[in-house]
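User: quick one, fold this
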Amino acid sequence: MQQVPGPVLPDLSIRQLEYLVAVADTTTWAAAAESVGVSPSALSQGLAELERRLGIELFDRVGRRRVLRDAARPVLAHARQVLGLTGDLVRWADRERSGLAGRVRVGMIDAAATIHHVDQLRRFRRERPDVDLHLTVAPSGELLEQLAAGRIDLAIAVQPGDADPAIATQPMLSEELWVYAPPGAEPGSPDSWGPWVLFPEGSHTRAVIAEELVAVGAHVDVIAESHQPDVLAEMVQLGLGWTVLPVTQAERNDPPLRPVRALTERTLVAAWRRGSVRPPALDELIDLLSPGQAGGVSPASTRRN
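Assistant:
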């Protein structure tokens, strides 16, 4: 049987893909050019060559500006993945040449970094002083973007609603999310709750909360937003509105917020680039952060009485 030849792959360069990501991640063409160390004209020429080799247009013209087309998003996702994996390979080669353990770049949401995994991070630093552990604390969406772009090696984040085939995940723990009322408010039925102070729209935790509030019959009238649980808790104490927070963050202050009822839970996952060349130290850290029982998800601390 005659073998049917596959498609001829275009000769794309890492540099061209880097240009595309730079344009997507900066506000102006000049800033994108500066971020990759070339002139704006060189950036334009490189992206024009990328379009030519792909055979598709990646940008629309809006006045004098060029805006990435929605149809080009798969190209951008591919570029981020290639740059991330290439960076992993380069760092692996550096470690092989130098014989050093190198750097492990970890991103965590605030609850993971300041509550759930404090002891494990301290233990890792104590047991692996040869590893340069670099920690970034940010919201889940931002961490997963940094992970895909190759700027961090591991993310501990809220499980995203949409799976990314380029990202592998492992459940770490589940956190209870409770409804909290401001001082003097009557618990009542869900349709009497609110107004709300919540995590910002677009965050993974906000999506989980909003869906469940609607399911129980609450009106989701949001009057203030913040990524910081302490800020949301303070807004509730000031009587600005109701909120939904992880128990471990809502009730650690004195006085703690007044709980109304359990609403739902969120799952925190470890996420890394699928197919990446990982340093052994990163695997050690993932094992250290993993739940104690094999294949299980450890529950976060429950409400205190």
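User: anything notable?
Assistant: The chain has a mean pLDDT of 85.
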